[in-house]
Design goal:
single chain; alpha+beta; 6-stranded mixed beta sheet; about 20% helix; 6 strands
């Protein structure tokens, strides 16, 4: 996979996938980020409002204009064959109204699939997928 930067992702484990996702996200490279999702992926970036297809891609591109800075760490992973279920602790800062930085985070529940090329891609990306999140919908 290659993004605007031309960097190629080599097949690796879910930890490498998450590390690459964070670097790519923080670089604001929407093209590279979208390559980390299967075509029919669902993202729930706002609790109770799943997005997919072009709507998901457009929402991501718009959000990246806020210059988000993400940090994330896998709390738990369960991998079997070509499917992985991850619980991920994450924090994010974005430009808020008035130029101030806003910080938020939570515990994500994500489902990944491994492609024929060996790379993991999100099938379901739900940053608010755990009821213990500090931000409720």
């Amino acid at each position: 996979m290659a993004g605007k930067s031309g960097a190629v992702v080599h097949a690796g484990g879910v930890e490498e996938h998450l590390a690459y996702y964070v670097r790519t996200f923080n670089a604001g490279d929407a093209d590279a980020i979208n390559q980390l999702y299967i075509e029919e992926a669902v993202s729930v970036w706002e609790p109770g409002k799943p997005l997919s297809g072009e709507t998901r891609r457009a929402n991501l591109a718009e959000f990246l204009k806020l210059r988000p800075e993400l940090s994330a760490k896998i709390r738990e992973s369960h991998v079997t064959s070509d499917t992985a279920l991850l619980s991920v602790d994450w924090r994010m800062e974005v430009d808020g109204e008035g130029g101030t930085r806003e910080s938020f985070g939570g515990l994500a529940t994500d489902v990944l699939r491994r492609g024929a090329d060996g790379n993991w891609r999100y099938a379901i990306d739900d940053p608010y997928g755990d009821p213990r999140n500090e931000i409720a919908g």
